[in-house]
Design a protein that fits this description.
Number of helices: 2
Number of strands: 6
Order of helices and strands: EEHEEEHE
Number of domains: 1
Largest sheet: 6 strands, mixed
CATH class: Alpha Beta
Shape: globular
Strand content: 25-35%
CATH superfamily: Diaminopimelate Epimerase, Chain A, domain 1
Oligomer: single chain
CATH architecture: Roll
Helix content: 10-25%
Structural class: alpha/beta
């Protein structure tokens, strides 16, 4: 059985120094995880929010984002969307098209 690699980043959003700003977990490679698996990971990471970067389901989107607190999935939040966009660009998961990076979330 082949297991796809999972990549977990912990970011400090809205700061220039480590340990400042808003903490955020970003997970790449969890395309086949269940909702419960994502929730368990977010609870384990124990950060304000943990995001899961996934392939988009809409043709106009660059990627899809699911956002979980340790307690539940949330449809949208500011620092997770901005921090995840930074991680997507830095890792090369998606690239802007005509200068735009389009994030697909449950809301927003």
């Amino acid at each position: 059985m082949s297991v796809d690699p999972i990549r977990f980043l912990q970011l400090d959003v809205f700061t220039r120094r480590a340990g400042g700003g808003n903490p955020l977990g970003v997970v790449f490679g969890a395309e086949h995880w269940t909702d419960g698996g994502m929730q368990r990971f977010a609870r384990w990471a124990n950060l304000v929010e943990t995001t899961f970067v996934l392939p988009p389901t809409r043709s106009d989107a660059s990627y899809r984002l699911r956002i979980f607190s340790p307690q539940r999935e949330i449809p949208f939040a500011g620092h997770p969307t901005i921090g995840s966009a930074h991680a997507v660009l830095e890792t090369g998961f998606a690239t802007p098209v005509d200068g735009s990076l389009v994030q697909e979330c449950l809301a927003g």
